[in-house]
Amino acid sequence: MAGGGSCCLQLYNFVFEYDTPRIVLIKSRKVGLMNRLVQLCILAYVIGWVFVWEKGYQEFDSVVSSVTTKVKGIAVTNTSDLGVRIWDVADYIIPAQAESTFFVMTNLILTQNQTQSRCPELPDTKTICTSDGDCTKDYVGTHSNGIQTGRCVRYNTTVKTCEIFAWCPVENDSYIPEPAVLKDAENFTVLVKNNIWYPKFSFTKRNILPNITAAYLKNCQYSRTMDPFCPIFRLGQIVQDAQQDFQEMAIQGGVMAIQINWDCDLDRKATHCIPKYTFRRLDNRESDHNVSPGYNFRFAKYYKDSAGLESRTLLKAYGIRFDVLVFGTAGKFDIIPTMINIGSGVALLGVATVLCDIIVLYFMKKRNYYREKKYKYVDDYELGEPHDKMNEELINPV
User: Fold this and answer.
1) What pTM value is reported for the model?
2) Are strands 75-79 and 83-87 parallel, antiparallel or unpaired?
3) What tens digit of pLDDT does each residue of 26-42 get?
4) How many other C-beta atoms can be found within 10 angstroms of the C-beta atom of residue 365?
5) Are residues 231 and 185 in the same domain?
6) Same domain, 181 and 66
């Protein structure tokens, strides 16, 4: 019964009691200094980080962007397969147009005059044979160049392989030309045209700045230190700025990023909103893991002779794919985020009081004395009971 009465009393006290903060001025150097230091740290955070560094007084918007590119350059090659040949944009840019990216062919394996006929497959562990019994008719392997006919034929003077029906002769890509066939691609240039839009602020701009003239555009070339706003880039310089070697990369290809950063403070003049270019290689090759390195693909050019016989030239193209990545944010003053951050800062100042209360009431030597001054009982005046017990100490939980 006693336990039940205690519970009822606690419930009664919980329902009918009300507590309100009491302001107590504590004259203590330690507590006062700690309080001011915490308040100073909070003010430094709110002013320095929230408002100055993070611009908490602004509203922000993300960039909407479009990119077009135009590559220029001529290369001359002299190979046993093609002889002396000129390569221009129509030869090494594949495809001619792409969205926010372009591919420049730097190396290739050429297989000319292929026709659909029968020929020996390339030798490997599954195609080398000694008799027709080693070959399976209509078999197509994962890496086959065609369909097996079931015959075992001579590949060269020492090796026999299974015959296939395919585009013959089959491509042999076991040897990659070194140095790269189009090593002169290092001196090709690309014009990058980038238009941006911040819809929330109805702000538009492009990376060809208003002070750039047609005459300047014909002669300028991007340099991080000398000419950082020219939108024409030498491919070799892009790779070099990414701490890579172009001639090494040209052999097996790779993927490069042209990064355009548009971080704009629209509380300033529009002329201060300018692009910043950075470059990096996206297919970083690790020295201990070089399985399937670089970047390549195949395509073919088809022909028909006067008799209607179809043939093709197969090209395995190695090269560098350049991805143009545009990112950034714009900020402009707005009263709503300003008031929200000011309110948050004021609320944070209350942390100093809470922290000092914890130190004073639970960790200092005179904590019992401070508790006595901090808390006060006031009984119900309407019940006619004493309503002020100034020196009554609050019962403290263990």
Assistant:
1) 0.79
2) antiparallel
3) 777 887 888 888 889 99
4) 7
5) yes
6) yes
